[in-house]
Amino acid sequence: MIELLKKAVRWEIALWVSLYRLTFRRPIPMEAGAKSFGYVRPVAPVLGVFIVVSAIDIVAVDLALNHFLPDWGWLRIVALILGTWGLLWMIGLAANLVTHRHLVGPSGLRVRNSHTLDLALPWHTVATVRAQSRYLTESDTVQRDKDVVSIAMSSLTAIDVVFREPITLDLPKGREEDVTELRFHTDTPEELVAYARTFLPDPVKA
Asked: Does residue 86 surpass a pLDDT of 70?
């Protein structure tokens, strides 16, 4: 129970920090020479619908309470506060994905998924990076099939990272050992691959 509460608090803080960064244009610092790549396009329509519905819901609930319970002004205030919090939470969820982007830079590749996943992959561990669109039949964000780990966005991946030798990945649900390939999604796979290959010390053709 305590761990669950801690996780909820961390989520809440992360969402508000991301909302602040997006609102005031304060991106997460990155090393010189690095470029960032987004991955939210597959889920953007769904997030947009939830945000719009949340905004409409605030107005609808307020009108309903004013009509059916005109003397309960305190309830309208409570509903307005909860509705506004819910709307900002949804926007913060989107901001969390937008601000925690994949990074490609001199020190390596960083694969992210909101604030919950941040994998640093030094270039000396990478054999090759290639663009390859895949659709996964399962809906889990993090999936493993034999020695391949996939970080999916709406069941999609677009990048294959093949390692020179099996490595261990620290994932949200625990450590995954003997991983030979990592797959993840980005909205601009060709651009990410082109920039990544400028840093590979001795790329292996695959």
From this structure: yes
Residues whose CB is less than 8 angstroms from the CB of residue 42 and which lie 6 or more positions away in sequence, other chains included? 153, 154, 156, 185
Range of the domain at 52: 44-96
pLDDT tens digit sequence for 18-46: 999 999 999 999 999 999 999 999 999 99
Which residue type, as a one-letter code, is found at position 49?
V
Residue 58: what pLDDT?
A: 96
What is the per-residue burial (b if ≥16 Cβ within 10 Å, else e) of 122-139? Answer: ebeebbbbeeeeeebeee
> Is 155 in the same domain as 83?
no
Cα–Cα dist 180/154, whole Å: 23
**16 occurs within a structural domain:** no
CA 117 – CA 110 distance, rounded (Å)? 10
Residues 6 or more apart in contact with residue 110 via CB below 8 angstroms: 102, 103, 104, 118, 119, 120, 121
Same domain, 179 and 146: yes
Number of helical (H) and strand (E) elements in the chain, helices listed first: 4, 9
Distance, CA of 93 to CA of 16 (rounded, Å)? 9
Question: Do residues 168 and 189 both lie within one domain?
Answer: yes
Asked whether the whole model's pTM tops 0.85, one would answer yes
Torsion of CA 119, 120, 126, 132, to 10 degrees: 40
Indicate the number of domains in the chain: 2
188 assigned to some structural domain: yes
